[in-house]
Amino acid sequence: QSNVVIYGELDAGIGQRYSGEDVGMISNYAGTSRWGLRGSEDLGNGLKANFNFESGSIELGDGSVGGSGSFNRQAWVGLSGSFGSLMVGRTTTPQNRVMGTFDLNGTADGSSALKAIGLAANGNLGGSRQNAQVQYATPNFNGLQLRVAYATNDNTETDKAFAQAAVSYKTGGLTIGGVIHKKMNDAQRTGYALGAKYDFGSIVVSGFYTRDETEDTRTNLGGGDGFGLGIAAPIGAFTVGLQAAYLNHDNNAVDGATAYELFGNYSLSKRTKLYAAAGYVNDEAERRGGYKEDTTFGIGILHKF
Amino acid sequence: QSNVVIYGELDAGIGQRYSGEDVGMISNYAGTSRWGLRGSEDLGNGLKANFNFESGSIELGDGSVGGSGSFNRQAWVGLSGSFGSLMVGRTTTPQNRVMGTFDLNGTADGSSALKAIGLAANGNLGGSRQNAQVQYATPNFNGLQLRVAYATNDNTETDKAFAQAAVSYKTGGLTIGGVIHKKMNDAQRTGYALGAKYDFGSIVVSGFYTRDETEDTRTNLGGGDGFGLGIAAPIGAFTVGLQAAYLNHDNNAVDGATAYELFGNYSLSKRTKLYAAAGYVNDEAERRGGYKEDTTFGIGILHKF
Amino acid sequence: QSNVVIYGELDAGIGQRYSGEDVGMISNYAGTSRWGLRGSEDLGNGLKANFNFESGSIELGDGSVGGSGSFNRQAWVGLSGSFGSLMVGRTTTPQNRVMGTFDLNGTADGSSALKAIGLAANGNLGGSRQNAQVQYATPNFNGLQLRVAYATNDNTETDKAFAQAAVSYKTGGLTIGGVIHKKMNDAQRTGYALGAKYDFGSIVVSGFYTRDETEDTRTNLGGGDGFGLGIAAPIGAFTVGLQAAYLNHDNNAVDGATAYELFGNYSLSKRTKLYAAAGYVNDEAERRGGYKEDTTFGIGILHKF
Known about the structure:
3 copies of one chain form a homotrimer. Chain A is mostly beta strands. The first copy, chain A, has one domain (5-16, 24-304): Porin, CATH 2.40.160.10. Chain A is built from 2 helices and 17 strands. Chain A has helices spanning 94-99, 113-116, and strands at 5-16, 24-27, 34-44, 47-56, 74-81, 84-92, 129-137, 144-151, 162-171, 174-183, 190-199, 204-212, 224-235, 238-247, 257-267, 272-282, 293-304. Chain A has a 16-stranded antiparallel β-barrel with strand order 1-3-4-5-6-7-8-9-10-11-12-13-14-15-16-17. Chain A is globular. In chain A, 51% of the residues are buried. Chains A and B meet through strand 1, strand 2 and strand 17 of A and strand 3, strand 4, strand 5, strand 6 and strand 7 of B.
C-alpha cells in the first residue's frame, strides 16, 4: 500500500447568494466542496516525489462536480528537496498561494468582498489556477519564500501562456506578500498586487492593493486599482470580522465598485466550523458588470476530512 | 490522515434484461456498482460531523459512470448527536431509507417486481434521491424513528421542492414503515406508502401498499394504488424468494400492471454473493408505458468493499 | 474499513509530441496518468473476490480525465482461486496483458515506435481494452499461462463482440507470448501476434511480429504484417534502449511505415523515474494515415503511488 492521503471538504447551509435567487439550500458559500488524493515519496537525501489530484468544486445541492469530474483544481507531479520544490501540471498560481492569506475569511465564495467585485486576493490578475505550469518555489529562508511559474501555451482559448513571480515573508505576527503577473497572449493582462497582515493576538488586520495594467479599452474591464481592508477578532472558538473592497477604473475612476462582508465563524474542531456571513455590493458603475446593488447572507457548516 | 472510509460495490454477470436485448454481459442487475467516501468526526459530547460522497451507478460493461462522474448518489454534510441527525445536500429520501426494506431482494434493478412496474419501494412517490434536501432524523426510540425532509427548489427542471415524512418501527421480527410525500411544484405529486415485514426465522414475509394521489389526467401516469408481496427463506448460505407487485390506475382500474420476481442468492461472505434471478412483467395496459409482456433473467456476482 | 487499495500514476515533463505542436509542457509521454481502486477479499479455501476501478488517462496539462471521469480503463469484478481467475466487465484484453511486455519502454504513449505506426504491442489487433468481457486466465503452470476472453456485443458502435486467446511462457531470461484475435462484427478484423524477449542480464533483446488479416480494401488500413525490434541495457539506475518498428500492407508492400525510438530512464525509486526519449517516424506511404515524416522528444518524471 502506498502513502496516498485522501482528503476533502464539504460546505452546505441555508442562505441567499448574490444574484437574486430565492432563499434556499446553499453550498460552497464559505469554502469549496472537493475531494483529492495527494502523496509524497521519500527518495532519500531529502529528495521527495510529490503529487496532487484534486476535483471540485462539488455542488452539494445536486452532487455535480465542476469540470465534469476532472481534476481541474490540482493535477501535478514534482520533486522537492533542499533546492526547493518544483511542480509540473495544473495547479494554483503563485498569486493564489501567496495572496489568498490577505482575505481574512478564506476567500469564501459566497460572501467575500474582494470576490464580489472580481478582485479576489487569490486570483484577480488571472485565474486562481493555471494550466500547464512549471512552478518553482525556493526553500523557506527564515520566513522568506519566492515562487515563480511559467505556463506554456496549452492550446486552449481561456488559458494562455503566462508568467508570475510572487514573494511572501512572515515574521512574528507580520505577513507580507507581493506578486507580479504577465499574461503573454492576446489579452496582454499584466499587473501586480501587494498585501500585508498583522496579527496582534486579539485582532488581525489585513490590507491589500492590486494594480491591473491591462490595456483593454472596453468600458468596464481591465486597467484599474483595487483595494481591500479587513479586520478580524478571535473570541474563544468564535472569530468575527469585517472586510471591505473597492475597485476603480482608469478611464472613469469615480465610478468604482464597493463591497462589504461581515462574517462570524464558530470552530467545532480544527476540521469543522459553523459559519454565518453577510455581504453588500454596490457596482452600479458596472465596473465588473456584476451585481449592481445586491445583498447576500448564508449560514452553514464547513467540514474538512 | 483523516478517518475517511472508501467503500463501494460491483455487480456483473450474464443475462438478459427487460427490454429485449440479447443475452450478454449484464451489470447492476442485483445491486448498484458505485464508489464513495464517507467519514465521521467526533466533536466531543456525543456530537459528530458526518459526510458522504457517492458516485454511480457504474456500468461495468463499459466503465461509464451515471451523472457523468458526479456524486449524484450522495453529496451531503451534517451533524449528529443526542438530538438525532441532520443532513444537508443531495441524498436518498426518507422514503428510500424507510421503505426499501420491504423489497426482500434489495430493490435489485434487474429483476425487482416493484421496479418493473415503476413502483419501487424505495422511490415510487418521487425519485429515490432528492437534490438540495435538509433531512432530519430523530434518535432511535426503542426501534421507533421519524425522518422528515424538505427540499428547496433547486432550479432544475426535474427536482422540484418537496416535503416528506417517514416513520419506521422495528421490534423483534417485525418491521413496519410509512411515508407521506408532497411535491410542491407543477406535477403536484402527492401520496403515501405503508409497509410491513415479519421475520419468522425460517421465512420472511413482506407486504407493501402505496397510494399515488397525483392529479394527472394522462392515461397511464399518476393516480393509482400499488401493492407488493414478498416471501423469502434463508437456507444456510442460500436465500430464495418470490415477490409480486400490482399497480392499477384510478381512471381504468381493471387495466393494471403485474410483475413477478424469483430470486436466489448465495453468500460467499458478508460482502460477496452470487445471485440468480428471473422476472416476468405484464403491463399490456401500459399502466407505466413500460415493458408490455416481457421476461428477464440474470446470474452474477455482487461484491462490496 | 475494507482492504481497498488506492493507486495511481502521474507523468509530466517538457517536450514536443508527434504532430507538430510547439515545445511545451507534456503529460503522459512515458506513462499514463491515472487513479484507481482495487481490492481482494479472501473467501476461504483459496477463493478470492477481486475488483478494479481505474480512471484515466488524466492530462496533467489541464486536469481533464479521459472518458469524462468514467472508469474507462478498468471496471470489473471477479473470482480467483485454484481454478485460475475470472473477470467480468471492462478491462484490458488478453493481448494487452501478454504482448505489452515486448515493448521495452512500457508502450510509452509519446515515443513508442510501435504506437507511432498504429502497431502497439498491447493493442494493434483491437483496442487495448474491450467492453463487456468475460475473461478467464489459467493458473500459472511453471511459467505457462493461457488467457481467453469473449465479449458480447455491448451495443456500442466502437466495441463489438470479439474473442481472443493469448498464451505466455516465462523461463529463466526468456519470455514468449502469442495471441489470436477475432472481431466478429462488421470490421471482421482478425489476426495474430507473436513476441519473444530474452534478458541476458547486461542487455535485453525483444522481437515482435503481428499479422493483420483484415479484409479491408481501403488503401491504408488493414491487411498487413508488422515487425518490432528492441534492445535495452540497464546501467545501474539507468536504462537505455533503442526500438524500431515496421509495418507493410498487403496491397502495396513496398510502401511501409517505419518508426524508431531512443530512450533513457533513471530510477529514483521503484515508484519514481526520470525519463528522456526521442522518436522518428516515416509514414509517407500513409500506411496508417499518420504522421508522415515527424520527430518527437520529451523529458519528464513518472511517479506511481
